[in-house]
Amino acid sequence: MDSNSLYYSLDLVASSGRVLTVEQRTALHTSLLILKKNYKFQRVMFWGKILGITRDYFIAQGRGEDEIKDQKYLYSLNCIDWLLLPFTTESMIEEVSKAAKGHFIGDPSFVYEQKIQGDREEAAEENKT
Questions:
Q1: What is the reported pTM?
Q2: How far is CA 13 from CA 8, 19, 66, 91, 95, in A?
Q3: How far apart are alpha carbons 39 and 56 in whole angstroms?
Q4: Strand order in 71-76's β-sheet?
Q5: Where in the cell is it found (predicted)?
């Protein structure tokens, strides 16, 4: 959703049952305008809310002059303060997909433990006995 029409667009998706509070909507509207100005984005898109166990993440994308090459992704835990998401590589995606099993916690400092193949084999042997 483009930040320019965010307030009206959120009403259109409210029928899905996942809505933002009035406080979140107001904070988003203001903070995305500030984000656009501070980062000198041409456009800011609100991508949505990721539900976590302890906290939720709000995700936005900022676009510069070149909408394809000049993109930055940001997250917020409170709809006000935005932090850049790190640039990802294929190897990072592969590594995280192996490690990030289970429910999304919603804590940026949480370290997911990666299960190695040996642990799986031991667990399988224990289950057989």
A1: 0.70
A2: 10, 8, 28, 35, 34
A3: 23
A4: 43-50, 57-63, 71-76, 83-84
A5: Cell projection, Kinocilium; Cytoplasm, Cytoskeleton, Flagellum axoneme
